[in-house]
Amino acid sequence: MGSSQSYPGLTEDLLDDYTNLTYLKKGEILHLMKKFNSIDPEKLEADYHHRFPKEDIMKKFGALRNNPFSDRIFRVFSSKQDDCFSFEDMLDLCSVMSSDCPPEVKAAWAFRIFDIDEDNQITESDICEIINRLTAPEPTTGERYLDECSKEKIAKIILEEISLDKNGGIAAAEFKYMISRLSEFETSFYFRL
């Protein structure tokens, strides 16, 4: 698997800390470091906390490149909210996307990703944007499969079903409760290193 000694800055003690603080195993952390380090080893050697831009990260991590929510993922997991990731930012993301991460932790992060306007609730406009991202435009015409009226109708139905206090939005607690009832959530909010 390799030794942490081959990556400047990643000491055995730090590797142990990462293992204790994340839902990842040592081998997964070393694999992630190998992949992250391959972006630009010289920059990482000069500064273990170097922040790589989104474009560089996406070249190495296909799960982000092909994700319709990649901009939100970068916004939520970038510790400086600058569309750049340090190794620790990437570690946080991969920990949450790990199969060993508890569903309630995944749900808390998913809420932040889907709260697109960042107003601490998922509203009709957030749901319409989620639908836009999940339904690709028709390849030949570029038109959306759903018109605005249809998306708004779907959003209203979702809000009626999920919002317990009927205030026009889904709060974090309501979202976690709803997610806990979806057996497929854990396997869909996941990616392989």
Describe the structure.
- By secondary structure, the chain is mostly helical.
- It folds into two domains: 10-96, EF-hand (Recoverin, domain 1, Orthogonal Bundle), CATH 1.10.238; 103-188, EF-hand (Recoverin, domain 1), CATH 1.10.238.10.
- Helix content is 56%, strand content 4%.
- The protein has helices at 12-21, 26-37, 41-46, 54-60, 62-65, 70-77, 87-96, 103-114, 124-134, 148-162, 172-180, 185-188; strands at 52-53, 84-85, 122-123, 169-170.
- The protein has a two-stranded antiparallel ribbon with strand order 1-2.
- Helix 6 packs across helix 8, helix 8 crosses helix 11 and helix 9 (124-134) crosses helix 10 (148-162).
- Mean pLDDT is 90; it is low at 1-5.
Q: How many distinct folded domains?
A: 2
Helix-strand topology string: HHHEHHHEHHEHHEHH
**SS strand fraction:** under 5%
Corresponding CATH architecture of the largest domain: Orthogonal Bundle
Between the first and last Cα atoms, what is the distance in angstroms? 14 Å
Q: Report the principal-axis shape.
A: globular
Strand order of the largest sheet: 1-2
CATH class of the largest domain: Mainly Alpha
Low-pLDDT residue intervals, each spanning 5 or more residues = 1-5
| Extended strand count | 4
**CATH-defined superfamily of the largest domain:** EF-hand
Kindly report the CATH topology of the largest domain: Recoverin, domain 1
Radius of gyration: 19 Å
The number of helical segments is 12
Helix content: 55-70%
The chain-level mean pLDDT equals 90
- Secondary-structure content class: mainly alpha
